[in-house]
Every structure is written in C-alpha cells, then in structure tokens.
Amino acid sequence: MAALLDHPVASTSYTWTASGRRANSRRQSAVARAAAVEEAPLAAALRPTRTDFPILRQSVNERPLVYLDNAATSQKPLQVLRAMDEYYGEGGYNSNVHRGVHALSARATTAYEDARAKVARFINASSPQEIVYTRNATEAINLVANTWGAANLHQGDEIVLSVAEHHSNIVPWQLLAQRQGLVLKFVELSGTEELDLAQLATLITPRTRLVSLVHVSNMLGCVLPAQRVAEMAHAVGAKLLLDCCQSVPNMPVDVQSLGADFIVASSHKMCGPTGIGFLWGRLSLLEEMPPWMGGGEMIQDVRLEASTYAEPPSRFEAGTPAIAEAIGLGAACDYLTGLGMQQVAAHERELGAYLYAKLRRIDRVRIYGPSPEAAQGRAALATFNVEGIHPTDISTILDTTGVAVRSGHLCTQPVHRHLGISSSVRASPYIYNTALEVDAFVDALTDSIKFFT
Length: 453
Hints:
By secondary structure, the chain is an alpha/beta fold. 37% of the residues lie in helices and 15% in strands. The protein has helices at residues 2-5, 30-39, 78-88, 103-122, 137-152, 171-180, 197-203, 226-235, 255-258, 283-288, 323-339, 341-360, 391-400, 413-418, 435-452, and strands at residues 59-60, 63-64, 66-67, 131-134, 158-162, 183-187, 208-214, 239-243, 262-266, 277-281, 299-302, 307-309, 365-368, 382-386, 403-404, 406-408, 424-427. Strand 11 (299-302) and strand 12 (307-309) form a beta hairpin. The longest helix is centred in the first third of the chain and has 20 residues, at 103-122. The radius of gyration is 23 Å and the shape is globular. Mean pLDDT is 91; it is low at 1-45.
C-alpha cells in the first residue's frame, strides 16, 4: 500500500503517518482538501493526470467532488472530449459515414472505422469485423438474443444465467424464452458470495445451448474464472456470452484467451461517451446470424420482392450510426492503452483492497461479495449496507459532503433478493481516485452513521 499511502500532502489540515492514518483533525477547508486530492499520487506504476478530467475540479455542496460512482459511469478525459469536438467543431468533419465520396464524408468514415479498429486492438479481437457498434451493452445482448438466439434456440433448449446478473442479461433471455419455449436456469452464490461453480457444473447439461454470465459483478465485485466456465460450456456444445461492462474498463481483457464466444461492453464505463457500446463475436458466428434491425447500410441489395444483406458488422448497424460517439470510444481506448491496462488493474486492486479494509473496520457495516483474501478475484468496488439505516439516506447524507456513490438495487434485484435485501450502497473508485478520497468517503460515512444513531 506504500504507493497509495506514503506520500506528503500539501495541506496544513493533514498530517500523514507511514500507516496512512491522519494524526490530527478530520476537519479541513474545501480548498485544502482539493489541493490534497490533486497532489495525492496514484499507484506507483500509474500516472494519469487528474487534470485530464476537468469535471473532478468542481465542488458539490461547497465540498470538493469525490466521485465514487464509476461502476455506473466513468468520467471523460479531455482527450475524449477533444476528439468529439474535432468532429463537430470549427475545421471539423461532421458528415455521414459510408454514404458519400466528398472530403468530409471520407474523413468521417475513416475516423469511424479507425475507432472500430482501436476497439478490436483493445480487446485483441482477430479483426475489426468482429466489432459491432451498438447503443450500449444492453442493446448488444438484445442483438445476440434476437439474432443468434432466435435462429439457434428451440423448444426445451436451456440457457444458464446467474442470480447476480444485471437486468440487461436477464430480461432479454426471459423474453426470448417466452417466445420460443426455452428453459432458464440460474446459478446461485457460494458461501463466499461468488458464483457457485460447483452448482454451475450441475446446471450445464447436453440441452444447454448458451451460458450467459457477468464477467465482473457490478454488485458483488467477484470476477468469474472465464476460461474455466468456457470449458464447461464448450464441453456440451454451448456458447458463452460474457457481460464485460465492469471488466473491460478495469483490467486487461483478451478475447483470444478469455474463451467466450460473445462479449458486450459499454463505452461510458471506460472513459468514453454515452450512447455507444459494442458487441464482440466470433466472426464465424456473426456471419451466420440474421439481421435484427432493417434499414440503410445494412443491406447488400434491395428489391421490391426481397433484400440481401451486408456482411458483418454492417449487417447489424442499420441507419445513421453514433459517429461522434464511436470516435470518442476510440479515443477512450487510446487513453486507457496509454495508461496500460496492467497498470490500471494494479491501481484498482490496491485502491479496492484499501477501500474494503477501511469499510470492514466500521461497526454495523455489511459488505457484500467475497473478501479480497477469499476471492478468485475482486473488483475495486464495495457494495454494503449499514444496519438500521436506509441506503438512500446514507447516499443522500454523503452527497452533502461532496461524495458521490450509488444507492438502490443497482439494476440487480434478483441478487439483492437472494441476499435478503432490497437495496444497498455502492462505492466504486477508478483510475483517477486516490487513497485520500477513500478516506474522505469513509470519514463522511462514519459521520453519517453517527448522525442517524
């Protein structure tokens, strides 16, 4: 923890010991606290500049913003904002793609497809052809359900999910199951509150056609051993889809070694803009999948009697796409690649362990998911409840101190019910967060608990 904790802070309000504890009062001015956060280094191997993220310099309720809601959406660096502004702004090249031969259209098309290639490199896809742009990860899962699923799944076939899935990886399969008479099975949690792989092995049968699981849980923080699960699925001829919304932004994801057949992810959780995500699929599978939405540019030839369709990925990208957003996603891939995803993962492990350790020492706090010691892998997020205090009350009080966290069911109602709760609080740091901010959050949480006691 030395890289995160053993550092001087340019503020008379703080004195840090080697253990990372403050030796004097927790009270500090907003100006001093902001200066301390700006100067606090991240993990030794990771040096993104907080000034890359201008939104972090603001105050909320006269306190410096401590943004710990990154599992919901990340902030955007200047590099991404500039890339999108260059498309729309003075001297820019705002134009439709794949439709014109004039200079602006050619430039826009090149930037749009260059961004696809950047996404492909970021996850080590075999070809940019394997990257399908979607509005978000939700649409990507729906695309698979309504193309591959509709064409390949039949009455009595089985899909294996888990109780820990985001609603976006449950509802599309429920809709498909209702239409096609499919059987949905759900993996529950082990004693350490990870997905129970022993139970998973019993749920996968010769009738299983698809296993669709979260790679990193946005509620529990547990990391799925994807290669092992892929072996289980492929042993019976099933395909594996992974929801990688919480893994692609936070750790190296290599689809060549992951073992999945499809993965989905969202731009806005990985420093990119909202309104765009992507599906990666093995090209051999994409080539066999029928189109889902019809319209311009997904066609090869249109006649009054019938139409033929373009090759992937164009087959699945009907209509004018989110061009500026795709360019922004490409810039986000460049930004994270420049930091180094191994370094990003190391920073998150370190800061996540520190966050967990600090929370664990607070009376009446119940943290969900595996402990860092017990886990096969744990993300840098902590979902918790405080005995006797509603999660919304906690997050509301934290907001008055400038600390932003998430409260509610986190789009994971089934796992909340499985754990006997209806809602929770989640703190989720990212690349620009520091140990000082974790301490500010824990201090504010401790004061909140005292307020309600």
